[in-house]
Design a protein that fits this description.
The chain is about 70% helix and about 0% strand. The chain has helices spanning about 5-20, 25-35, 40-50, 55-70, 80-95, 105-115, 115-120, 125-140, 145-165. The chain is elongated, with a radius of gyration of 18 Å. The relative contact order is 0.11.
């Protein structure tokens, strides 16, 4: 793994952890990958050395994560903060546009981890998740190919582009 890829993975893991979508173990693993890639700092070493014992790792991670990210000139987002939720939405939007996740994956993720109360940026994606549910209910939850689903997919892609400030036309 290249150094920049490892750094990006650590930043993303920290963001997802801060919104409850990722685990402390994923952040610790990303810190280890940074060390393997030749990225080094005193607090990063401590972060990579945290034991991912279920139930205890979050407390220790809280104590070291901000310092480790700061040493690497990365952004620390407080747990559950609006900024962390907005950044997580942008990361997921980039994944959608890179075609590493499906449109429905983005909307269901936004519904589950961001919610209406998390940030207004998620409102349209959550509404689109509800639209998917409505289409599924109309088709009695049976797998189907539907023009309505393709239209929702296109709307989700458009919303992802809007979140990232991309032009909305193809």
């Amino acid at each position: 793994m290249l150094g920049q890829d490892a750094i990006a993975r650590l930043q993303d893991a920290a963001v997802f952890w801060s919104v409850g979508s990722g685990t402390a173990a994923q952040v610790i693993e990303a810190a280890c990958e940074c060390l393997i890639a030749g990225i080094d700092s005193p607090t990063l070493r401590i972060l990579a050395g945290i034991s991912p014992v279920k139930g205890e790792e979050n407390d220790e991670l809280r104590g070291w994560l901000e310092g480790a990210l700061s040493e690497l000139s990365l952004t620390y987002y407080g747990e559950g903060s609006r900024e962390s939720k907005e950044e997580a939405l942008r990361i997921m939007a980039r994944r959608l546009l890179a075609q590493t996740i499906a449109p429905r994956d983005l909307t269901s993720w936004a519904y589950r981890f961001i919610s209406y109360d998390g940030t207004p940026l998620a409102a349209e994606l959550i509404a689109l998740d509800n639209a998917y549910d409505l289409v599924a209910a109309i088709h009695d939850w049976q797998p189907h190919t539907s023009t309505a689903t393709r239209d929702i997919d296109a709307d989700v892609v458009g919303e992802a582009r809007r979140l990232l400030g991309h032009p909305t036309t193809a």
